[in-house]
Amino acid sequence: MQASREAVFDASPEAIMEVLADVDALPSWSALHRRIKVIDRYPDGKPHHVRATMRLLGITDKELLEFHWGDHWMVWDAEPNLQQRGQHVEYNLTPEVDKTRVRFDVIVDLAMPVPEFLIKRARTLVLDVAIERLQRRVMSRSRHR
């Protein structure tokens, strides 16, 4: 399964990266994330390895994620498990005057065949969390400052 989406956020890249780096808060704004446990962090405090419990289309999946960070990008890769042989996620941010263009890409190598209608539904849910709910979270944090 592959999916991508872009949107322009009315926020700085730094504000968006701050929300992305706060993985402990994911279950509070992402309907897909049930539990998050940061295993270790980089010297700057950003998460390096994270255990995540996800629920999508009635299936609960436990994942071990490895994060990598740049000033305007974030990547995570998931270790293989029963549901998937691999997962690669990228956020790339491009500053635009007073806004930021956010691009989200995900590739999931499923471990078993899944009907196309379920893949389409999962893709819609993942993209909603990855962009729309992220945007809401960024904007709500910006208003509270």
From TrEMBL:
Gene3D superfamilies: 3.30.530.20. This is Cyclase. It comes from Mycolicibacterium fortuitum. Transmembrane segments: none annotated.
